[in-house]
Amino acid sequence: MFEESKRRSLLKMISWRVWATLTTMTLVFIFVGKIAIAFSVGFLEVIIKMALYYLHERFWDKIMIGKKQIKPFVLWFTGLPCSGKSTLADMAYDDLSRKNYKVERLDGDVVRSIFPSTGYSKEERNSHIKRISYLASMLEKNGVIVICSFVSPYRETREFARDICDNLVEVYVSTPLEECIRRDVKGMYKKAMDGEIENFTGVSDPYEPPESPHITVDTEKQSTEESYKKIEKYIKRLI
Question: Whole-model pTM?
Answer without folding.
Answer: 0.74
